[in-house]
């Protein structure tokens, strides 16, 4: 799927269904298309803390998770994931030490000629070393993009025509589930969020986008003071400090 070209979008209604299991659905890329992106539009600002991807086929050899904070105009990588970061991403060849290397997560994948029925990749946006920082900049996103950049290597016993055909037929990506955990973005001035007017059906575990603002604040993200509460300039609220 090319997310920059609307004519090549692979929308949700084109997912594949298992005829023997009515509840088994998955997204599958075009065969032999190696550089493929999935884009998730969150419609407003959310603070994303965890991303889980469940593959129904071989894990990719390398992938990139990016976020946008301006509704898809620009993108920032938040995690590279690969069997070998320095081999899959030129960016890391010159930076074997230091913070840049923390951007890439190495995953161990045992080579096989047959795929597992399920392979999970879980990524936490904020690690334990960053908990003392202001995590807003790290977690804030309007869109998430997952780019699968390389097919996994396969174990082939010989170069027969049948194995070559099998190899070509297995060169695709398949994802059965993507879970994004996080919270609505209210600048620390709301204890909960509610559904906006466009949401007519309640979905289990869904994070709603509309802040119920406290502390005499108002706005979509509680980003300004209410009328008659302007003695002090508006500021975001933190656990230890509330500006009211």
TrEMBL record:
Domain Laminin N-terminal, chain residue ranges per copy: 1-183
SUPFAM superfamilies according to UniProt: EGF/Laminin, Galactose-binding domain-like
Keyword flag Repeat: yes
Keywords: Disulfide bond, Glycoprotein, Laminin EGF-like domain, Repeat, Signal
GO biological process: animal organ morphogenesis; axon guidance; basement membrane assembly; cell migration; substrate adhesion-dependent cell spreading; tissue development
Any one Pfam family match given in the protein's UniProt record, by short name: Laminin_N
Family matches, as CDD domains: EGF_Lam
Taxonomic lineage: Eukaryota, Metazoa, Ecdysozoa, Arthropoda, Chelicerata
SMART domains recorded: LamNT (SM00136)
Biological source species: Leptotrombidium deliense
Name of the molecule in the record: Laminin subunit beta-2-like protein
Cross-referenced InterPro entries: Galactose-bd-like_sf, Laminin/Netrin_ECM, Laminin_N, LE_dom, LMN_ATRN_NET-like_EGF
An example Gene Ontology CC term for this record: laminin complex
Gene3D superfamilies membership: Galactose-binding domain-like, Tie2 ligand-binding domain superfamily
């Amino acid at each position: 799927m090319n997310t920059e070209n609307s004519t090549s979008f692979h929308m949700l209604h084109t997912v594949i269904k298992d005829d023997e299991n009515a509840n088994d659905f998955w997204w599958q890329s075009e065969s032999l298309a190696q550089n493929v992106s999935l884009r998730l539009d969150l419609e407003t600002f959310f603070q994303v803390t965890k991303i889980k991807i469940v593959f129904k086929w071989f894990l990719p050899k390398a992938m990139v998770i990016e976020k946008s904070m301006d509704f898809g105009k620009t993108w920032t990588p938040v995690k590279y994931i690969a069997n070998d970061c320095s081999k899959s991403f030129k960016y890391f060849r010159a930076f074997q030490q230091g913070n840049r290397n923390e951007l890439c997560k190495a995953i161990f994948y045992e080579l096989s000629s047959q795929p597992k029925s399920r392979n999970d990749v879980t990524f936490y946006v904020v690690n334990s070393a960053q908990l003392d920082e202001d995590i807003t900049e790290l977690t804030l996103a309007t869109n998430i993009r997952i780019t699968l950049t390389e097919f996994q290597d396969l174990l082939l016993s010989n170069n027969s025509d049948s194995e070559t055909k099998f190899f070509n037929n297995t060169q695709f990506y398949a994802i059965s589930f993507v879970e994004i955990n996080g919270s609505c973005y209210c600048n620390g001035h709301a204890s909960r969020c509610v559904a906006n007017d466009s949401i007519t059906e309640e979905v289990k575990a869904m994070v709603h986008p509309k802040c119920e603002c406290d502390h005499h604040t108002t706005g979509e993200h509680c980003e300004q003071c209410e009328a008659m509460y302007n003695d002090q300039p508006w500021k975001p609220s933190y656990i230890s400090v509330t500006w009211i």
